[in-house]
Amino acid sequence: MFKKYSGKPSKQRKRHFNAPLHKKHSLMSSHLATSLRNKVDARSLPLRKGDKVRIMRGDFKDHEGEITKVDLKAIKVYVDGAVVEKADGTKIEYPIHPSNLEIIDIDRKDEMRDKAIGRKGE
């Protein structure tokens, strides 16, 4: 016998937030800018610290900056310059979901990233 698929929203949310880290890695993907799509020969790539991105949705729409932190557990990304001022005057970085970002420039300092891009293009 096989497990019956449940489309119940609460169960889908549970699977999403309780997913193991290797599955959350694929959720951290974002679209590539059209200029990069032709070079890399891929539509999307997982986000990494150091990538330059453009925010496409929300309060910081059209803001461009470098990724300073990637929170795999919460499925959120922190972009340089996307900062909110709290009531007491302190500034904190605003967490952004990867689906609301577009990759403008890829950080290619790591050879593992080049291998991943090569596999994606095949």
Automatic annotation (TrEMBL):
<dbReference type="InterPro" id="IPR041988">
    <property type="entry name" value="Ribosomal_uL24_KOW"/>
</dbReference>
<dbReference type="GO" id="GO:0006412">
    <property type="term" value="P:translation"/>
</dbReference>
<comment type="function">
    <text>Located at the polypeptide exit tunnel on the outside of the subunit.</text>
</comment>
<dbReference type="InterPro" id="IPR014722">
    <property type="entry name" value="Rib_uL2_dom2"/>
</dbReference>
<feature type="compositionally biased region" description="Basic residues">
    <location>
        <begin position="1"/>
        <end position="26"/>
    </location>
</feature>
<comment type="subunit">
    <text>Part of the 50S ribosomal subunit.</text>
</comment>
<dbReference type="InterPro" id="IPR008991">
    <property type="entry name" value="Translation_prot_SH3-like_sf"/>
</dbReference>
<protein>
    <recommendedName>
        <fullName>Large ribosomal subunit protein uL24</fullName>
    </recommendedName>
</protein>
<feature type="domain" description="KOW">
    <location>
        <begin position="46"/>
        <end position="73"/>
    </location>
</feature>
<keyword id="KW-0699">rRNA-binding</keyword>
<dbReference type="GO" id="GO:0003735">
    <property type="term" value="F:structural constituent of ribosome"/>
</dbReference>
<feature type="region of interest" description="Disordered">
    <location>
        <begin position="1"/>
        <end position="35"/>
    </location>
</feature>
<comment type="similarity">
    <text>Belongs to the universal ribosomal protein uL24 family.</text>
</comment>
<dbReference type="Pfam" id="PF16906">
    <property type="entry name" value="Ribosomal_L26"/>
</dbReference>
<dbReference type="Pfam" id="PF00467">
    <property type="entry name" value="KOW"/>
</dbReference>
<dbReference type="GO" id="GO:0019843">
    <property type="term" value="F:rRNA binding"/>
</dbReference>
<dbReference type="GO" id="GO:0015934">
    <property type="term" value="C:large ribosomal subunit"/>
</dbReference>
<keyword id="KW-0689">Ribosomal protein</keyword>
<keyword id="KW-0694">RNA-binding</keyword>
<keyword id="KW-0687">Ribonucleoprotein</keyword>
<dbReference type="InterPro" id="IPR005824">
    <property type="entry name" value="KOW"/>
</dbReference>
<comment type="function">
    <text>One of two assembly initiator proteins, it binds directly to the 5'-end of the 23S rRNA, where it nucleates assembly of the 50S subunit.</text>
</comment>
<dbReference type="InterPro" id="IPR005756">
    <property type="entry name" value="Ribosomal_uL24_euk/arc"/>
</dbReference>
